[in-house]
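The pair is listed for reference:
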Amino acid sequence: MVVHQLSLEEARRIAVHAQMLDLPRPTDIVEVVERLTILQIDPTAAIAPSADLVLWSRLGSSYDPPDLVKAVEHDRTLAETVAYIRSPRDLPAVIAEVRDAETRAFTAAWLETNEPFRRDILALLEKEGPLLSRDIPDTSVEPWPSSGWTNNRNITRMLESLALRGHVAISARKGRQRYWDLPERVYPADLPTLDLDAAVRHRNERRLAALGIARSIGPQIPGEPPYVGDAGEEAVVEGTPATWRVHPAYLGLPFKGRTALLSPFDRLIHDRVRAEQLFGFEYILEMYKPKDKRRWGYFALPVLHGDRLVGKLDATADRKAGTLVINAIHEDVRFTRAITAAVRAEIDDLAAWLGLEVTGA
């Protein structure tokens, strides 16, 4: 068995290349999502929604957000699922993992109790879909109990549970509201049905292609896991503990870096432990912290330069004033003139893409 010996620089460059953050830039939205496997949907728009920021970071100012809507809602070359936009070819594996590996016994019991509710929704969608959730009557047998914001949100909980299991699909959006329909009217007709083992292999291989280098297993974290099982090949990275899995196609490639401003939800930094071990980069999304407890800002953008994460940009889009307000640029390493110029150029490009003027620091 081959165990690859990698320097930190090599590991970082593999990670950056896998995430399409080097040169040359990609040019196609579907190509980007196909490689990244997911775009996380988050409505926070302190600068721009995360999905749009992730695509802008890769495609540059040629990216136009309506093009993403077109790909999802009209061309059907991409698909919206609960919380993510994905390539349609990943849907069978995503659905199989939820369908065959239910980890929450309470959810399974709630769905079983509300089987008549499920049938009511499917019958209504077949007859009248696509529909907004507000157009669907609540015929639940047992309400969804929660101590949080989901308490008694029976229609939303049922629709999302059905979507995760492939029984309904998100067809389009009206603002932040989702249209729901039957999957056969939204997804490609030739999608296969996978068993759990095939689904896990598919997901691990796809995830490693997106990350380049990752851990096999690790502690559970919210959202899409960053682990890849036994996909790829084993590697040791200097100065880091234990072993990694690396995508062999990315080994030994030439690397031409660039500068990029990243969404706080960007997959390059989503796994905070990996970001610290490979890049020496500490990051916490501070939008949920009191203002006086923030170190970097409400929605600080990590700054990539070459194969290093070198700082954070604290900025806010003031659309009423027509400005991109730069509150601070936090330097994790001392910026050289070249880094400063490259970061400023990216800020200018971000502002131009948003149609705003740069003000502030």
About this structure: Residues 29 and 67 are 8 Å apart (CA to CA). The chain has a mean pLDDT of 94. Residues 337-354 form the longest helix (18 residues).
